[in-house]
Amino acid sequence: MAHVVILGAGTGGMPAAYEMKEMLGKEHEVTVINERDYFQFVPSNPWVAVGWRTRSDITFPIEKYLNKKGINFIAARCDKIDAEGSTLHLDNGQAVKYDYLVIATGPKLFFQEVEGAGPHGGHSQSVCDVTHAEMAYEEYQKLLAKGSGHIVVGAMPFASCFGPAYEFAFIVDADLRKRGVRNKFKMTYVSSEPYIGHLGLGGVGDSKGMLESELRNHHINWVTNAKTTKVEAGKLFTTELNGKGEVEKEHEIAFDFAMMLPAFKGVDAVAAVEGLCNPRGFVIVDELHRSPKYKNIYSAGVCIAIPPVEATPVPTGAPKTGYMIESMVTSLVHNIADELAGKEPHTTGTWNAICLADMGDTGAAFVALPQIPPRNVAWFKKGKWVHMAKIAFEKYFIRKMKKGSSEPFYEKSILKMMGITRI
Ligand SMILES: Cc1cc2nc3c(=O)[nH]c(=O)nc-3n(C[C@H](O)[C@H](O)[C@H](O)COP(=O)(O)OP(=O)(O)OC[C@H]3O[C@@H](n4cnc5c(N)ncnc54)[C@H](O)[C@@H]3O)c2cc1C
Question: What is the pLDDT averaged over residues 239-248?
Fold first, then answer.
C-alpha cells in the first residue's frame, strides 16, 4: 500500500484528494495536510470585502467531507519537507512519511516586496484570503462612514493574478452605485501590467479595448506600468515606466482606501527544499507535473513555476486560473496512478483557461485555449450572464468540494462540447 500525501487543501489540493482517492481506491492511502482546518472559496473573497458574502458563506470545515470519502486529514502547517527522506515535518511535532507527495500550497502573499504594503502592519488591503477580505471590509465600512474619498485598487510588481483586482474595482463601483454615493468617491486602478487588460496573459481577445472602455464608463482612472515602491498611511508611491522600462512619471497617490494585490512567491517550507524550486520559490515541474529532481514529488496550482508570458517593463507573472489548476491536478493524478500500476506516466494537462470575472452587476468571461499564447481559441465577452454564472459557479464549486466529486459527468460533457478538456 502506497501513501500519497497532498500538501494544501485549496482549489488544487481538494480536487486532487478526491480524484486521487477515486482513482487509487482502497488499495492505497491518501492524506491531506492543510495549515487551516477549513476550505475557503478564494474567488468569492472580493465579495466578502464589500459585505456581499460572509466567512460562513464561502468556507466549510474540511475534515468530515474528506473522511466521508476515506481520505485522512491533518490540520497542521508543514514547516519542513525532507525530500531525500520523503518525510514532512509539521508544526504540531508530527512527522509524516510519504511515497508520493503532491504540493498544492498556493502562493505566499509576499507583501514585503513593497515597503508598507499589506493588511498586517502595512497600509494597503488585500482580498487574497478570507481574513484579509474581512479586514478590508472593516476599512471599507470606515470609508463609507467618512462619506467621500479616493479609492485605489490594483496590483503590485511581481503580482500574477490581475483578474481579482479588476473584479474588486468594479464590485466597489457597483456597491457605491447601489448605495447612491458613487459620485462622492474618486477611483484609480494602479497596476504593474503594461496595459489595461494584459492580465499577465499578454491580453485575451479584445480584453484591452473592452476593459479600458469599462473603466472609462465607470469613471475609474488608471496608471499602468506602475512600479509601486512604497505605501505610507494614505499615500502610494508609484513609478510609472514607459515601454522601454524608463521612468515616465513619479506618482504620489493620496488615498483613503487602497486594495493592492501583492507579489506572489512560493511558501517557505517548499521554497527551502534544495533543487525543488526556482529563485522565487515556485516548484519546477516537467510536463507531467513532476519534479525533475525528486521523482516522487508532483505539484499543481499557483505554487508551480510557469515562465511569464512575455517580459514586461514592471515584472508580472502569468496567472494560474482555477480550471487550469484542475487540469494540472487531473494530469498528475493519472501519472501517480500509472506509476503505482507499474506503468510509465504520460498524461499532460491542457492548461486551458476559462475565467469568469464579476463586475458587480455584470461581468466578463474569457476563454484562452491554451492559456499560454499562441492560442487556438481566445475570446473575451462581457454581459450580465457572467455575473449570474459566477454566483452559480460559487455554489456549484463549494457543493462539488463537499460532495467529493472533482469533475462530475455533466461538467465534463458540457465543457467537452465547447472543445475544453483537462488532459
Ligand atoms: C482573490 C482571488 C480571486 C481569484 N478568483 C479566481 C477566479 O474567479 N477564477 C479563477 O479561475 N481563478 C481565480 N483565482 C486564481 C486561483 O484560482 C486561486 O488563487 C486558487 O485558490 C489557487 O489554488 P491553489 O490550490 O493553487 O492555492 P490555494 O487555494 O491558495 O490553496 C493552498 C492551500 O495550501 C495551504 N498551505 C500553504 N502552505 C502550507 C503549509 N506550509 N502547510 C500546510 N498547508 C499549507 C493553504 O492554507 C491553502 O489552503 C483567484 C485568486 C485570488 C487570490
Answer: 96
Single-letter amino acid code for the residue at 207: S
**CB distance 262 to ligand 1 below 6 Å:** no
Q: Which three cell numbers stand for residue 319?
A: 496567472
Residue 160 Cβ contacting ligand 1 at under 6 Å: no
| Residue of 111, 23, 114 lying closest to 71 (CA atoms) | 23
Distance CA 411, CA 405 (A): 11
User: What pLDDT digit, counting tens, does each position of 107-146 carry?
Assistant: 999 999 999 999 999 999 999 999 999 999 999 999 999 9
- What ligand 1 atom has the least distance to the C-alpha of 168? 1
Ligand 1, atom 53: closest residue by C-alpha: 128
For residue 61, the CA-to-ligand 1 centroid distance in Å is 16
3-state secondary structure of 171: helix
pLDDT range class, residue 420, cuts 50, 70, 90: low
Full-model pTM: 0.95
Over residues 213-234, mean pLDDT = 98
**How far apart are the CA of 319 and the centre of ligand 1, in A?**
11
Find the 216 Cα to ligand 1 centroid distance in Å. 31
Give the Cα separation of 39 and 61 in Å (integer).
6
**380 — pLDDT class (breaks 50, 70, 90):** confident
As annotated, the active-site residues are 161, 355
- Amino acid at site 122: G
Residue 67: phi and psi, rounded to 5, are -60, -40
Is ligand 1 within 6 A of the CB of residue 11? yes
Question: What is the residue type of 416?
Answer: K
- Ligand 1 midpoint to CA 106 (Å): 5
Q: 77: Cβ below 6 Å to ligand 1?
A: yes
Instruction: Say if residues 348 and 331 touch (Cβ distance below 8 Å).
Output: yes
Binding site membership of 164 for ligand 1 (Cβ less than 6 Å)? yes
CA–CA distances in Å: residue 400 to residues 223, 230, 337, 397 = 39, 41, 22, 5
From the CB of 43, is ligand 1 less than 6 Å away? yes
CA separation for the pair 351, 12 (Å, rounded): 13
pLDDT in tens, 70-96: 999 999 999 999 999 999 999 999 999
Note the pLDDT of residue 89. 98
Contact 140, 257 (CB under 8 A): yes
